[in-house]
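quick one before i forget lol
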Amino acid sequence: EGNTAEGWNENGIWFYTEQNFSTLAYAQLTGNNLLVIWQYINTQNINSLRGQIITESGELDWQDNGIVLSENFDNVSNYIELFLSNDTFTLFQKQYGYSELKGQKYDMQANRLWGNEYIIFAESVDSFSVEQIGNQFAIAVSRWSPSANNYFDIYLIVIDEDGNNLLQDELAVCSYYNQQKAPQISPLSNEFIAVTWYDNRSSHMITSGGFNIYSQLIDISLLSTEENETISVWESNLLNYPNPFNLSGTERNSGTTISFSLLYDSQAKVEVFNMKGQRVAILKNEFLQKGDYTCNWNGTNEQEKPVASGIYLYRLKTDREEKMKKLLLLK
């Protein structure tokens, strides 16, 4: 209803009060508590990341002003990706510019589980993307390659829950000439992921210059940790096809099919939202047994009126997890 929760001050809670520059980096719910991670910059312009747990009642669970998660950075900008489970959280980060990609896993008392130092997974990284795949992580990086005429190439790294690299060497997703940057990973099924990036290999043919979008399909079932053990993706797979989809002509009746798999019995709710976060339609909301399911969206709202073309979000929410992906509606 938008009311301030019990125990919380109407003007918010001070979780960091030292007189230095700080910026909020990330906040995510973990059970009934809130994990907050922010950047801290002291008077010597040394950058670090701190964290704090705020309980449901608005109390600070860790020490005053939080716990230092990583430190001694010489730049004011960090890029991070954070993944939470019931009793741990995993943090990946790099500094602004071409720098090392590091990772560390913590318990909920902020004890480091991958050793005292951050693990370096790649160097000279321009940009990166991480997706959790079962108990492992798939990491796509755009990395500077001095041996390739100072171009940036796309590589895939897969690590287990203990931070060990599962591949003997990085998997070169794209090492074509010119620049490949901003990789994104999308799980597609139990066997495949797509790595997508922007690429200016053919920009010389475009009068105004620019980039094209490229993608590579990777069979992750071939990336095994041990003999006969393969990597499985999300507990509940979620995808739609076709994407993008066009509702001109007879396709108005077919739309796009959203499919998902449940590995457990659960209440399941599938919704569509616009980019403002406003709900457009509820496609499914019922208790389902373990299995594979589909539902269709024909580009209409809850009043069965056609919506405008553009990017929409579709979300699957179960008793254990919540996932959201994008789809593109054309007309």
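fyi The CA atoms of residues 155 and 172 lie 5 Å apart.
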